[in-house]
Amino acid sequence: MQAINITAYTEDPSQIEAVKAFMKALKIKFEIANVKSYELSTEQQEILNSQIDSDKSLYTDAESIYTDLKKKYEL
User: Fold this and answer.
1) 3-state secondary structure of 13
2) Single pTM value for the model
3) Terminal Cα distance for the chain, rounded
4) Do 69 and 75 touch, CB atoms closer than 8 A?
5) Cα 1 to Cα 50: distance, rounded to the nearest angstrom
6) Residue of 29, 31, 63, 68 with fewest CB within 10 Å of its CB?
């Protein structure tokens, strides 16, 4: 059995019931996850974009920090 992800944008509970009935009619096993979509504010999107577009050479990767801490504290 292969699992796939399908997103349905329903407008009311009757549409959800219709999708359930359709899947049952086709004898397809399914799960319904109630995932709430979200939108970033303009300010949040600008911050995210600036982080994505930032110069990666200005940052130290976590593995290097971990190694340095182990050496510093002789762990």
Assistant:
1) helix
2) 0.45
3) 47
4) yes
5) 42
6) 31
- The answer, yes or no, to whether residue 58 has pLDDT greater than 90, is no
Q: Over the range 1-28, which residues count as b (16 or more CB within 10 Å of their CB) and which as e?
A: eeeeeeeeeeeeeeeeeeeeeeeeeeee
**Of 26, 32, 50, which is closest to residue 40 (Cα–Cα)?**
50
Q: What is the helix (H) or strand (E) element at residue 72, kind and residue range?
A: helix 62-72
Residue type, 36: K
Amino acid code (one letter) for 63: E
Residue carrying structure tokens 């990666």: 56
Measured in residues, the chain has a length of 75
